[in-house]
Amino acid sequence: MSQLKDEFMTSTHNRKSSPRVTLKTIAERLGLTPGTVSAALNNSAAARSIPEHTKQRILEAAREMNYRPNFFARTLRLKRTFTIGVIAEEIGDDYGSQVISGIEQYLQQNNYFFFTVAHRHDPKLLASYSQLLLSRGVEGFITVDTSVTEAPSIPTAAVAGHQSVPGVTNIILDHKKAARLALGHLKELGHERIAFLKGQPFSSDSATRWAAICEAAQEFGIQVRPELTVQIEGTDSTPNLGYPVGKELLARKQPFTALFAYNDISAIGSIWAFKEAGLRIPEDVSIIGFDDIPGAAFANPALSTVRQPLIRMGQIAAQTVVDQIEGRGEYVSEIAIEPEFVPRDSSAAAPSRQLQSVN
């Protein structure tokens, strides 16, 4: 205990005794003006006239000297908060946490702060949080799995927002391509009787994704059967979300050889239900998820899924908002992101095809 105390006291003493590094300190070391150093570190409009090699010298010196900007002085001087408001459906779920991680990475690299609030699809909370964040001086909004219905007064990007609202840039996945990738995979494996789990009505992606699945199924000649389609209910962000719908699907006693789930969480929960009933994955039933959350590769068996680059989507949303705030980018209504299909152990040839290959 005393050793820890000594280390803490030494660390505290070193921090107190070390002279504070300022813009002037860096400028004197490099033989530049404080204004030039400030422009480069803040990436302001004036930085455009600074040669790239000079910018790199300034950034390298700031890192070496452990420069820490005075946020409050910067805010007062520029009359800005350098803060973004992030409005999410949920923070702790795999989808939202990945997107927010991407937002954090980009904003941190660009000296922005952010406030995050979670509304859990409560419209009253959603409305009050927007006003609360505005009162805190945020300069832009990023929403995650949240439908924006009114034109915002500040730059806004929506991840998984599908309503066309003036002033909002929607960062969306190409759901039509995603559906074709997943159903094309199952079609190649010989699956004809495919079950589907539909997303909750309140989820921003649900309607768009389902429409894309129905369109792709028609293209491939796959019948979307009502008796093999189950609506997911509830707000659980664990595999418990998919367990009851998997049980319900089995209770209907309708034969199927594959399941295409709304997301990875519901797919993994369904695997539990199917295994409990004595079914083998993928020998009896192939399972495909959506998102490629971190746990998908470690499911048992590893889950075949449509990958959304969630961290990248968060980074793009943050960059879009910051570029508009800084005057570096023009408003665009939509940015489409390409999906990728990741085949793993949960999908295989349809049982009838397996039998044919054995015979």
CATH class of the largest domain: Alpha Beta
Number of strands: 12
Report how far apart the termini are: 72 Å
- Strands of the widest sheet, in order across it, are 2-1-3-4-5-11
CATH architecture identity of the largest domain: 3-Layer(aba) Sandwich
Largest sheet: 6 strands, parallel
What is Rg? 26 Å
Question: Would you list the SSEs in sequence order as H and E?
Answer: HHHHHEHEHEEEHEHEHEHEEHEEH
Structural class, please? Answer: alpha/beta
Q: How much beta, percentage-wise?
A: 15-25%
Helix content: 40-55%
Count of structural domains: 3
Report the total helices: 13
The quaternary organization reads as: single chain
> What overall form do the CA principal axes indicate?
elongated
Mean pLDDT: 86
CATH topology label of the largest domain: Rossmann fold
Q: Say which CATH homologous superfamily of the largest domain is assigned.
A: Response regulator
Which ranges are low-confidence, i.e. pLDDT below 50, for 5 or more consecutive residues?
A: 1-16, 354-359
3D structure, described in words:
The chain is α/β, with parallel strands linked by helices and 359 residues long. Helix 6 crosses helix 12.
Task: Summarize this structure briefly.
This protein has 359 residues and is an alpha/beta fold. It has helices spanning 2-17, 23-30, 34-42, 52-64, 71-78, 94-109, 123-135, 175-188, 206-220, 243-251, 264-276, 310-326, 351-358, and strands spanning 83-88, 113-118, 140-144, 156-159, 168-173, 194-198, 229-231, 258-260, 286-291, 304-307, 334-337, 340-342.
